Amino acid sequence: MDDFLVKFFPSVYEKKLHAKEDNYCKYNNQVLQLFTSAMFLAALLASFVASKVCDKAGRKWTIRWASLLFISGAVLMAGAVDPIMLICGRIVFGIGVGFGNEAVPLFLSEVAPPQHRGAVNILFQLFVTIGILIANIVNYFASQMHPWGWRFALGLAAGLAFVLFLGSFYITETPTSLIERKKYEEGKKILKKIRGVDDVDAEFNQLVNASEIAHQVKHPFKKLMKLSSLPPLIIAILLQIFQQFAGINAIMFYAPVLFQTVGFGNDAALLSSVITGLVNLFSTLVSIFLVDRVGRRVLLIEACFQMFITQSIVGGVLHAHLKSNSNSLGHGQAILVVLMVCVYVMGFAWSWGPLGWLIPSETFPMETRTAGFAFAVSSNMLMTFLIAQAFLSMLCQMRAMIFFFFAGWIVIMGLFAFFLLPETKNIPIDLMKERVWKQHRVWKKFMVDDDDQNAIEAAK
Question: Where is the chain membrane-spanning (predicted)?
Answer without folding.
Answer: 31-49, 61-78, 84-108, 120-142, 148-172, 233-257, 269-291, 298-322, 334-359, 371-392, 398-421
